[in-house]
Amino acid sequence: MNKKKILNIVTLVMFLITLVLLGLFIFGGKVPNQVYPTPVYTGALLNWAYILCGIAILAAVVFPIIRLFTRPKQAMKSFIGLAGLVVIVLIAYALADDTPLKLVGYNGPDNVPSRLLMSDTIIFTMYFLFAGAILAILGTEIYKRVK
Prior knowledge:
Layout: H1 3-27, H2 42-70, H3 72-95, H4 113-146
Helix pairs in contact: 1-2, 2-3, 3-4
């Protein structure tokens, strides 16, 4: 079996797992006696999201290292992309705010500066990556039209 076929099968399996967990999350019922509606399978969906994020991070770090030994010139392009991502995360970290929120009726453990700084950094990073994706799509389309 060739690599492309294996990759397609793995991608399809991951997509099906995501669909099943999303279906359970949406249609699996609510936790009883909660102030707000809480789906039963929230933890499973979040754990799957963590696994997918870990796989993506691992692939983003491991494959450029492997490519460094097989194709050094192409590996430098990958490391430039990783360096760009690090710069984006550092800019997002600099913009993040760690001021505890004044939430009426909430005394939980998540309203602390370290957690707020991390969540703000992630949110700003997502904003930057989303804007970059939109600009890349528009730029590609404009380039195709001009060419």
